[in-house]
TrEMBL record, chain B:
ABC transporter domain location: 4-237
Organism of origin: Kocuria subflava
Gene it is expressed from: ugpC
Keyword Nucleotide-binding: yes
CDD domains hit by this protein: ABC_MalK_N (cd03301)
Protein name: sn-glycerol-3-phosphate ABC transporter ATP-binding protein UgpC
InterPro entries reported in the protein's UniProt record: AAA+_ATPase, ABC_transporter-like_ATP-bd, ABC_transporter-like_CS, ABC_transpr_MalK-like, ABC_transpr_MalK/UgpC-like, Mo/tungstate-bd_C_term_dom, OB_MalK-like, P-loop_NTPase
Amino acid sequence: MSTKQKLGWAIAIVVVLIWSLFPVVSILANSLKPASEFAGGGGSFLPQTYTWENYQMIFTGGARDLFLPALRNSIGITLIATAVAVVLATLCAYAIARLDFPGKRIILITALAVSMFPVVSIVTPLFNVWRQIGLYDTWLGLILPYLSLTLPISIWTLAAFFQQIPWDLERAAQVDGATSFQAFRKVIVPLAAPGVFTTAIIAFFIAWNDFVFGIGLTSTSAARPVPAALAFFTGASQFEDPAGAISAAAIIVTIPVIILVLAFQRQIVAGLTQGAVKG
Amino acid sequence: MASITMNNLVKKYDDGFPAVNDVSIDIADGEFLILVGPSGCGKSTLLRMVVGLEDITSGDLLIDGNRVNEKEPRQRNLSMVFQNYALYPFLTVYENIAFPLRLAKGKFSDDEIDKKVRNAAELLDLNDHLERKPGNLSGGQRQRVAMGRAIVRDADAFLFDEPLSNLDAKLRGQMRTEIAQLQRRLGITSLYVTHDQTEAMTLGDRVAVLKKGRLQQIASPRELYEQPANLFVAGFIGAPSMNFLPARRDGNTFHTPIGDIPVPEHAQGRLDSAGELLILGVRPEHFADARDVQDTPWAAKGATFEAELTHTEWLGNQQYGYVRYEQDQDIKAKLDELAKDLDADEMPAQVVVELDASSRIRGGSNANLWVNTRKMHVFDPETGLNLTRDEEAGAELTREANEERKAEIERLQRHES
């Protein structure tokens, strides 16, 4: 690369970084401001005085009963929804990639069609159905709609991934004495691990960030997830802006996402199949 | 240890295309059989049918006399080396070789597995690499690991699917020798698919030549070379390949574009069924510089003609000369069709002659050439059949090869013990 190109890239990277990190920095700054600074329109970008009082409020103070159960709900519901989605999608995608059966295309098209319905149009009917059958305001009542969001994209991603795995590896395992399921478990699953991790992370984000289902299908802290709970934050008094507490909560829920990406970054190593076939 | 019998095997795809069409082959216990043919001839499909990765449309496949058509690959107890090796990239070399043993749950203790893996590694010179991953190995080493995985199990037969086609020429030669010796030492039935006729000639006890899903001829390499059944086998086996010359027979003389050649003794009486137009097949080494043979007994066994060489290639140990001629239009279509079957575009209208390295004949000059008519084959252009094939001599060659193989296995096994 010439110096000119390098400079061009550097500028582009800086622009993208500012563009994507500015909101995060802004929220972080807000979460460290005392409530008084929000009076009269929000004050300056950076806090005049730094304080932990917003964090104290959501963990030990007035917003505690709202935030902590919501955090627990979010973590539990999202993890279960992700795990179920990944297991189902892995089996489904494997069948789509490897087996020849009637209705293969229909499954793929249906999966795509399902994910095209706007969430808002589903949430009202679901609200009525869930109330009738007793799923309203329960974990299961959120896990099911989350699956409808995460399964289609998981199936599509994984099917594409499985198709890249050399078929001969599986054939070799069968000749070596493996049953179809053994070949899947001992050869395909280890090879597909990076794809499965990637899919799991995507599914996790979708469920973790959901707001519409969270607010539409819950009414108490029994199942309300964090994004929905944020809407119920109030200030210490009626006249105080809750923006500081909301920002603090937003920062807290961002942390698992960052940890996930950092932790699984290593697993998502491209080219794991190198050496399986002639490279 | 097992024999493999294929009875009228057919593989038809959904669109009705027969990839393998009515193939019957008997592989004796301990025999090394090669399936050879140009790309798309169905040889790999046939191999996959034997191992169980491809369904059999009709016909019977027997291993040691038992019909196995409906059995899963894992129930057939065959081991296979894939063209792309198909090593498990997330396992070490050791675990790759141990994989089939670990799958047979409870059959082997860890000590037994360790012993077997180390034996196989010893045999294939892999001891230094057991803890490495396949991704870090060279092509030849990967090839060996794939072989190790095949031999570690006491399989009934080995199947090879073009195992050397991904290696460079030098390594290919070396691995070819290793495979041949390994097979002899273990004395295990082997079926080997290749499109490379050098591999076919050097490795096989017998070679089965396939074209468009049909078996053309199955015989020892020598028989294929000396007594080919038809034009296709004659053109496919041998490098440089056999020269095909159009000829019009007039009594006891062939009129060819490079001169008149008397009808040889072994062809007389066999040509009457065919028309006047024939194809002569002569291998390059059955030509010579007329000066080199004129005072030897060979001179009487052939015919001499004069031709202009367009150019010569001197290779040190031998020399090739090229003679161009006017192609007979009546035969051109037939020869071009043959060329297409052999994966070439068209049959060049030239004769390749092998001359002694010391021959002074040079390109651009007229030369007196001698052709050994006794070794000449005459083909019927319509059916492609070899009219001068001597079945008995051919069978004798295959019988000899069979005896040589038995003697060699005995010798090697005596050597082992």
